[in-house]
Amino acid sequence: MDILIVMFAGVLVGNRFFPEKYRQLNERLQTVCTALLIFTMGISMGQRDNFLQDLTSMGWISFLFFLIPAVISTIFVYFLSRWFLERKGGKR
Fold this sequence. Notes:
The chain is mostly helical. The chain has helices spanning about 1-15, 25-45, 50-90.
């Protein structure tokens, strides 16, 4: 919940109060922070004793976390787009 509150505050500040002249600096800062986050995650994963054994299971779990939402959202968008396009085209 804390993450959502901080993210909402960032959206509010970015939309209402953040000057446009600092936009490029903000984008660069985001890139640097993202790279730092990925680097530190790699360090914490590399410190595990049985990292190579866990890598296979982490890969499958990550694959499922990608596959299941992607399939469900694709099906959802397919049926919604058919429904809205049929209503817009006057077929209903």
